[in-house]
TrEMBL record:
Domain AAA+ ATPase: 42-188
Region Disordered, residue ranges: 297-325
Protein name, as recorded: AAA+ ATPase domain-containing protein
Source species: Nitrospira defluvii
Entries under Pfam families matching the protein: AAA_22, TPR_12
SUPFAM superfamilies found in the cross-reference section: P-loop containing nucleoside triphosphate hydrolases, TPR-like
Source taxon at top rank: Bacteria
Compositional bias per record (Polar residues), positions renumbered to this chain: 297-321
GO MF terms, alphabetically ordered: ATP hydrolysis activity
Length: 474
């Protein structure tokens, strides 16, 4: 649904296990190394545990993909507490025992199977998923089957994967003999914040998008809400992308993530963290997030070929189509919000409008004006530069924006860069505003008063003048 809008080749946060999406953060990298160690060292039993949704099945699928050529593998995924014996399921996992033999005949058939694999110099790997459902009797059955490993090099290796209850089960006194045969075990812990952020970015990359969609504050909120559980991260991110698509938001902020989380939590089914994880941001954090959103927009506008994309081309879908709203309407809403001093809200609207190539020049100029009004001069200068990159040719408006850029650079103390732009303006329009005067003063390095830096020769605010000019330009 939202794939084309966000320029994705496929949905990045589906729940189905997919080794292509495996993120090798600290905990999963160590888990994979531990599993491989157990295989290569011919461990009879390997145990992997973790909370539901930690990616155990995906990890096992990746293990099989990387090592399947060395093993004859069988996988049991549908264990349940009502099972009275495992052997028929094991035979089916290896493609054996279609006639439902009795236990003695089934045991003999499995023994013959192991013998043939041994002669062919192939090891047999049995993986039992959701192994916490087995119970003591079925685990004892597995232990007895492992007795078929008679030679120095065992032919049968078994990996048990399950929830933390499996670890508690193996700590029972009546399973001491079994526990002593477990050579390798590992418990998957939830992600730390750094890995949650990396996980989200990784899945977006695999789905075909290099650029971020979520702000840093949004990904941190997702981590707090999900506790670093990958499956919960997937569900919340998928919902947030759906909400963002419905609102026509090119990037996802904490506000959208919070709305998605609140709605998903209403039914009490999705186990997200409480309201403390949705605490309001400080004014400084809000300002930082707005700056990040503006930076996202400027990077999108300046991407190679972004100004030349056809509205109907696949590459343009995410930047040209705005479900439920028109880019021009977003631009006009931004002007209205800016007029009443709501510069943070105006930033979001201008950033959205800037994704339309036909509005990129004017919208990015407005982004710069809003950032300047918020006291973020460095980011404002970047926005003005992106605005100029989106406009071809020379017009009165490009001269106005270049003047805005030069004044901003001058206020930042970047005199040489400011002089370069003033010289360009004088070449194109020699009598423009106070450019000649500023060139003389800056070239001779005469000190400028704070008042001169903020006002034009007519005594009015240069920012206010240009806001009026650009704001009226539709």
């Amino acid at each position: 649904m939202y794939e084309a809008f966000y320029n994705l080749k496929l949905r990045p946060f589906t729940l189905a296990p997919n080794p292509d999406f495996l993120y090798r953060g600290d905990t999963h990298r160590l888990a994979m190394a531990t599993l491989e160690y157990g295989l290569l060292n011919e461990a009879g039993f390997v145990v992997l545990t973790g909370m539901p949704g930690m990616g155990k099945t995906t990890l096992l699928q990746q293990l099989l993909a990387e090592h399947q050529r060395h093993f004859t593998t069988g996988l049991i995924t549908n264990t349940h507490p009502g099972m009275d014996t495992l052997l028929p399921w094991i035979l089916l996992a290896f493609g054996l025992g279609g006639a439902h033999p009795d236990k003695l005949q089934a045991f003999y058939e499995f023994e013959q199977f192991l013998a043939k694999e041994s002669i062919a110099r192939r090891r047999v790997l049995l993986i039992v998923d959701e192994a916490q459902n087995l119970g003591a009797n079925l685990l004892e059955e597995l232990r007895l089957l492992s007795n078929l490993n008679k030679d120095k090099a065992p032919i049968l290796q078994i990996i048990l994967s399950g929830q933390p209850d499996l670890r508690q089960l193996l700590q029972r006194k009546d399973l001491t003999q079994f526990a002593q045969r477990v050579m390798v075990d590992y418990s998957l812990d939830p992600f730390q914040e750094e890995d949650s952020i990396g996980y989200i970015a990784h899945r977006l990359r695999v789905a075909g998008r290099e650029e971020p969609i979520f702000t840093q504050h949004a990904t941190r909120m997702i981590h707090r809400l999900t506790g670093g559980i990958p499956r919960l991260i997937n569900q919340l991110c998928d919902t947030a992308l759906t909400y963002g698509y419905a609102e026509g938001a090119p990037f996802l902020s904490t506000k959208i993530v919070a709305e998605a989380a609140k709605d998903r939590s209403k039914g009490g089914i999705l186990p997200l963290a409480g309201a403390d994880a949705l605490t309001a941001m400080t004014p400084e954090q809000e300002s930082a997030e707005q700056t990040e959103l503006a930076t996202f927009a400027s990077q999108t506008v300046s991407a190679p070929g972004s100004a030349d994309r056809s509205v109907n081309s696949p590459q343009a879908t995410s930047t040209a189509s705005l479900p439920g709203r028109d880019a021009q309407e977003a631009y006009e809403r931004g002007l209205a919000l800016k007029k009443v001093g709501l510069h943070n809200d105006a930033l979001q609207q201008f950033s959205l409008a800037a994704l339309d190539a036909s509005l990129a020049f004017r919208a990015m100029a407005q982004v710069g004006i809003c950032l300047k009004a918020l006291g973020q001069s460095e980011e404002a200068a970047t926005a003005f530069q992106k605005s100029l990159q989106a406009q071809r040719g020379i017009s009165a408006d490009t001269i106005q924006v270049r003047y805005l850029l030069a004044r901003t650079l001058e206020s930042l103390g970047r005199i040489e860069s400011a002089l370069e732009h003033y010289r360009w303006i004088r070449r194109e329009e020699p009598a423009f505003k106070d450019v000649a005067e500023r060139l003389d003063r800056l070239s001779s390095r005469r000190p400028a008063s704070t008042r001169d830096g903020e006002h034009g020769s007519d005594g009015s605010s240069w920012m206010a003048q240009l806001q009026r000019i650009l704001g009226a330009s539709k």
